[in-house]
């Protein structure tokens, strides 16, 4: 029986291994983590991450061929294939601070593998890492090998949160990179055999190590660039009276462009896009490719611009001040159907409004108060460290309250901002909300989820990203 061990029971490791266990009953899968709390949660009815469909998959395999454990060394030493899916934060100090990936967790995992292994291993990079990380890991392992043969593969994960299970069940492609030696090719074949249990062969792409590593950064950079492109258009639409949804629809009909990933928003978030682009920029700079680095930097600049443009719009619409005003924030997660807040645009928007002395009442169906308070108190780039290393009792931000209901959040508020596209926000009783708000009552829709015309009939002043401006807002130009 093939044994697989995955180091890191996070958003990538947990769901990916659960699906491998489900699709490959003949393979034993152990997911290990240094966080006792995370492993306890994986072994309970309350999984540590919210992901549609995940509970069912875990229930079907847990205790049969899927195990969650803190006994990292035992499972690593027994495994034939080891996936490494640990945190790769952006460095906050030293060389490459603010750009380069911090490989501390990766390196410590690699050294531990070298310490405890007694048989040959295939070590698979699952977390996104800078190009040539595999080479560094290979060096650590082979210099400590005690005669053991290690084959390093890069097998980047392309799942998106909120649709992780769907994405894993039928991936657009699976990418496996390895050495072009006979041993390297054998390792690629072994991993390919795992995926071949459910993924059609023509969707499994095999490349060299560097191509696989770079493809992951490139894919995320291209996706993020699409959003910054449409968001840049949204600013122009507002200035000229065009409607960004109509523009997206029209350009998406061109098969060379395609209709997906063209929704204008308050900005992209999530653990990957910004981090991977910063990484790409750093690699370009290290190779003296200044023009290429500048090109990709612009994707992040436009994303930051979109968030501050939104804050400016809120403040300028409300008579140039939100000081002492209650503002409801509906949605805090970086997208719908996840409780994940890593790099969510809501953090920057909330901090912008707090900077202008607003009082915030925040509601998100999946994010806890503790998480929100922690996010708003945290420094940039500090989020991607294992849970147990984060401050346990954050200083609570007094200007912020977190509530469990959209009606509570909006009661007596001057304005409401929609920052995540949760489906439930579409069917709120906006007449009831209007009746309980201060007047004039403002809606700032950062995800284009509400029917602006209907809300205007109720009496709201509505701002929708990239849409022709409400006459009220035209008279109060945002100070971009
Ligand atoms: C992304 C990639 O899609 C995935 O392939 C990779 O493995 C990890 O990074 P994820 O971050 O989970 O996945 O979510 P994604 O759906 O890509 O959304 C990222 C951000 O872009 C979210 O904040 C989302 O709201 C925003 N977005 C997405 C838009 O603003 N508009 C869109 O049209 C699509
Ligand atoms: C373009 C648009 O495609 C068309 O819809 C619009 O009406 C007019 O502008 P055209 O300029 O005729 O059409 O040719 P196109 O095939 O788009 O190529 C434009 C340039 O991009 C060419 O120099 C082409 O060689 C280059 N190109 C295109 C690439 O370098 N790589 C590609 O993958 C595609
Ligand atoms: P991702 O979104 O890439 O899955 P997460 O932050 O959700 O990232 O998960 C990474 C996990 O890796 C965390 O649960 C963290 O505790 C774990 N981890 C980090 N370093 C190690 C290590 N050396 N050994 C075991 N687990 C680790």
Automatic annotation (TrEMBL):
It comes from the Eukaryota. Its EC number is 1.1.1.22. NAD(+) binds at residues 8-13, 33, 38, 86-90, 127-128, 161, 272-275, 342. Residues 328-452 form the UDP-glucose/GDP-mannose dehydrogenase C-terminal domain. GO terms for cellular component: nucleus. Keywords: NAD, Oxidoreductase. Pathway: Nucleotide-sugar biosynthesis; UDP-alpha-D-glucuronate biosynthesis; UDP-alpha-D-glucuronate from UDP-alpha-D-glucose: step 1/1. One of its GO terms (biological process) is UDP-glucuronate biosynthetic process. GO terms for molecular function: NAD binding; UDP-glucose 6-dehydrogenase activity. The keyword Ribonucleoprotein does not apply. It holds the Pfam family UDPG_MGDP_dh_N. The active site is at 272 (nucleophile). The keyword RNA-binding does not apply. It is an enzyme of class 1 (oxidoreductase). Signal peptide: none annotated. It catalyses: UDP-alpha-D-glucose + 2 NAD(+) + H2O = UDP-alpha-D-glucuronate + 2 NADH + 3 H(+). Belongs to the UDP-glucose/GDP-mannose dehydrogenase family. This is UDP-glucose 6-dehydrogenase.
